Amino acid sequence: MGSSSEIGASIIEAGASGDLYQLKAIRNKVDDEWEFRKICDEYSDFSTGRTVLHHAVGIGHFEICKFLIKTVRVYIDAETYKRDTPLAEAAKGGHVKIVEFLIKHGAQISLPNIEGFTPMHYAALKDNRELLELLRIKGASIETDSVDGTPLQVAVSRGHVEAVKSLLSHGANPNFSCAVVYTPLICAVKSHSFECLKLLLEGKADPNFYVSGLSPLQCAAKEGDTKFLKSLLKARADPNSLDTDIFKPIEDAAMEHNRAAVEILFPVTEQLAHYPNWTVDGIMEYVHSEEFRKMSEEKLTKRLNALDFGGLLDAGNKNYYRAIFHYRMASHLDPSNATWISARSLWEVRTHKCINALLDAQQCIRLKPDCPIPYHRGDNAAAANEIFKKFLRAGLAFLLDPYKSKKCHAFRVTMFDYFAWLSQMSSADEILSFSCDD
Questions:
Q1: 98 and 2 share a domain?
Q2: I need a surface site. Which of 135, 205, 288, 343 has the fewest CB within 10 A?
Q3: What PROSITE patterns does the record tag this protein with (predicted)?
């Protein structure tokens, strides 16, 4: 019929187009059942690594899935370059029947991809309560973290009410935050989802718990719609927050010219001694004064220095998770400074949070595209040359044998992320200016 690569290409095409007749015809022309299964398992899209099974579940073609799993007996947990399994692809497409079929035939239910996303995350993204219920009943983990947070954080951040109801009813922690430092309550305010906020408070979310330097109340104080602020105060959120905060919620409201929020917070906020006129008008006027600006800059600098010192101290004691926490706080307070993100990326590597480290490194480059990067001269020449040699070795291995996934998986993922980042640039000139600076 042709070479294995030609057969593999035909199989991928049949799966992607949903042509079961063509797929069976190819199967009948291959002499050996084992050989056909091997081709189905080993051949994938060059750009994504999706096998024929990934394609079939992605378009929701149940009959092809049945044929591949029950008749051909393909590997059910094959991974793309991003490590998405067929089960993840099916969940991503919201294909409940196929998800159930894959689980029944042994698919692993909570395998994360390189960004930490599991089928449960994809179900939350689809706001598919039926799919969430199925996955939970079948034993899927509900608290798996990802670069976008847990399934609950993902759902709340997008205002997916049905998903939030399902996850909370199955015991999702309404106060959890790790990779995404904003708690679900803050995610609800930022997504302007009052329904999600109410569900979280009913689910015993703590309005005074936060780790990012921004409390739920501070976040709500910046919103023009004061119902978020009122609900949090009713739930006993503290308007006189911690001493480590740069500003109190009432100041955040005033800086946003949110007079309605200032009026709500004024009766419950303790007087700040440095304000010359502790009235609503006085607060609104003072936070826009030169004196307040200078004082704020001094407080911010002092706080950032303390966080930097704490991060370096923790890193020196090999408490890398605590160091990451310090630099997350710093990058929240000073979001345009790539230094904090760069430091965070370094310690994420030490804790084997590779995808977080990669994403933070990319964010550094976006914030500071002219920062020093692997050149072959100067003080960093040795390190740059070593990086470049590793890249060349990976590229050579890929060119010599592109189907040896164990050799080339890391290289493919790196290239995929690199070109995904390049695609976000606005023009060819911008890409060339970045690539040809040297």
A1: yes
A2: 288
A3: ANK_REP_REGION (PS50297), ANK_REPEAT (PS50088)
Among residues 37, 40, 33, the alpha carbon closest in space to that of 11 is found at 40
User: How many separate domains does the chain show?
Assistant: 3
Work out the pLDDT band at 406, boundaries 50, 70, 90.
low
Task: Give the H or E element holding residue 114.
Answer: none
CATH number at residue 87: 1.25.40.20
Is 10 in the same domain as 93? yes
Q: Inter-axis angle of helices 194-202 and 161-169, to 10 degrees?
A: 10
pLDDT tens digits for range 31-63: 788 999 999 999 998 888 999 999 999 999 999
Q: Report the C-alpha gap between 66 and 62 in whole angstroms.
A: 6
The predicted pLDDT at position 374 comes to 42
The answer to whether position 339 is within a domain reads yes
**Start-to-end CA span in the chain (Å):** 50
The answer to whether 309 and 317 are in contact (CB under 8 A) is no
Whether residues 20 and 63 share a domain: the answer is yes
pLDDT in tens, 74-118: 999 999 988 999 999 999 999 999 999 999 999 999 999 988 899
Token pair, residue 144, equals: 């798996």
Given a cut of 70, whether residue 438 has pLDDT beyond it is: no
- Element of type H or E holding 204: none
Can you say whether the dihedral through the CA atoms of 181, 184, 185, 189 is positive or negative?
positive
CATH number at residue 314: 1.25.40.10
| Three-class secondary structure of residue 172 per DSSP | coil
Mean pLDDT computed over 324-343: 84
Of 47, 75, 108, which residue sits at a domain end?
108
SS3 (DSSP) at 385: helix
Task: Choose the final residue of a domain: 108, 138, 168.
Answer: 108
